[in-house]
């Protein structure tokens, strides 16, 4: 079963999956500190937030803010409905990923990620000799700020790939701004407390995650347990195939599929800004032996040069500052990828006290 044939670092997981039952040794997870890799788990009672209630000020707004506060201080995530993005745009976004995946490998390789870079079409980045690899291929693109886009990595086939992703980016940017305002309100802070740190030119990456079928879903991760380094992550799940799980109180829960809802989770930057009130949750994705799975994640972070720190109004004698302040895009990505690939939590690097 477990082949230890030399792994060609440029060989895509999609090709390994098409080859048959052999799983190269480097993908096999030997250590599961957060619990076994299994889908036999309870379904999560995931909070559902109605964005239209947050953005209008109506009689139901306060109720929705309370739900938001409760969701983020317990799970760190929720499903968002009535988000205003047309369902056909969401379908097209995911479908474009599926169409791209069907292209011959030589056509996809035009967008290949360079070994040392993040952006492009590629598999798990290898940073460590003993790193266990995730069973996933990706297209990873900087989508904001617009003048930072590297269009050479943006697929031109299918034809609507670029325009659909551009439109989706605009919409996600607006949703995140609404959420950041609401999150401040939910903590009785001035509306712009988080937005001021986030800025007007956020750094946003969109990542298509492709999880080919895997002959032994119990031995590998689609994505290993991690928390996101972003302020907020917006994720469109596969419309049919489950796989995402969140950890709460040492127990994994499966995220249910709710067509056209988006999953939102806060990342480490919001945990820091909220001085630990909002939790950046650990999550992972599992593979499936029969079906491929596609998800589209957009990681939204403050603009370049912003300093991230716990909002002053949240600090007092009872609640001391828990995290160091740091420069977002400058300091964190390097810490993030190193910690992540070693299965450690990058946020520990900015904690003032070890817990
Ligand atoms: C991620 C992630 C989950 C999924 O890309 O950071 O957590 O369901 N993805 O693909
Ligand atoms: Ni994630």
TrEMBL record:
GO terms for molecular function: 2-oxoglutarate-dependent dioxygenase activity; metal ion binding. The keyword Oxidoreductase applies. Gene3D superfamilies: B-lactam Antibiotic, Isopenicillin N Synthase, Chain. Keywords: Iron, Metal-binding, Oxidoreductase. Residues 202-302 form the Fe2OG dioxygenase domain. GO terms for biological process: coumarin biosynthetic process; response to molecule of fungal origin. It comes from the Eukaryota. The keyword Iron applies. Belongs to the iron/ascorbate-dependent oxidoreductase family. This is Protein LATERAL BRANCHING OXIDOREDUCTASE 1-like. It comes from Coffea arabica (Arabian coffee).
């Amino acid at each position: 079963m477990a082949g230890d044939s030399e792994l060609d670092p440029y060989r895509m997981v999609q090709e390994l999956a098409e080859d048959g039952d052999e799983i190269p040794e480097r993908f096999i997870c030997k250590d599961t500190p957060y619990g076994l890799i299994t889908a036999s788990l309870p379904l999560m009672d995931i909070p559902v937030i109605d964005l239209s209630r947050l953005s209008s000020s109506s009689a139901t707004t306060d109720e929705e803010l309370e739900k938001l506060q409760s969701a983020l201080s317990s799970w760190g995530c929720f499903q968002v409905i009535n988000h205003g993005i047309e369902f056909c745009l969401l379908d097209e976004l995911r479908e474009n990923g599926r169409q791209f995946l069907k292209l011959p490998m030589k056509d996809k390789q035009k967008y290949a990620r360079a070994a040392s870079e993040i952006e492009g079409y590629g598999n798990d980045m290898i940073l460590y000799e003993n790193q266990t690899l995730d069973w996933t291929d990706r297209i990873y693109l900087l989508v904001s700020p617009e003048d930072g886009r590297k269009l050479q990595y943006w697929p031109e086939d299918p034809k609507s790939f670029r325009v659909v992703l551009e439109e989706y980016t605009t919409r996600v940017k607006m949703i995140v701004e609404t959420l950041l305002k609401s999150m401040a309100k939910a903590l009785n802070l001035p509306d712009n407390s988080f937005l001021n740190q986030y800025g007007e030119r956020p750094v946003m990456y969109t990542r298509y995650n492709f999880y080919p079928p895997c002959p032994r879903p119990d031995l590998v991760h689609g994505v290993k347990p991690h928390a996101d380094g972003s302020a907020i992550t917006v994720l469109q799940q596969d419309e049919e195939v489950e796989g995402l799980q969140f950890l709460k109180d040492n127990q994994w829960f499966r995220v249910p599929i709710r067509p056209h809802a988006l999953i939102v989770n806060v990342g480490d930057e919001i945990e820091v800004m909220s001085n630990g009130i909002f939790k950046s949750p650990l999550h992972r994705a599992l593979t499936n032996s029969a079906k491929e799975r596609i998800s589209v994640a957009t990681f939204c972070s403050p603009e370049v040069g912003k300093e991230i720190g716990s909002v002053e109004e949240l600090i007092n004698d009872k609640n001391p500052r828990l995290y160091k302040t740091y420069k977002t895009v400058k300091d964190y990505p390097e810490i993030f990828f190193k910690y992540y690939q070693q299965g450690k939590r990058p946020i520990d690097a900015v904690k003032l006290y070890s817990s």
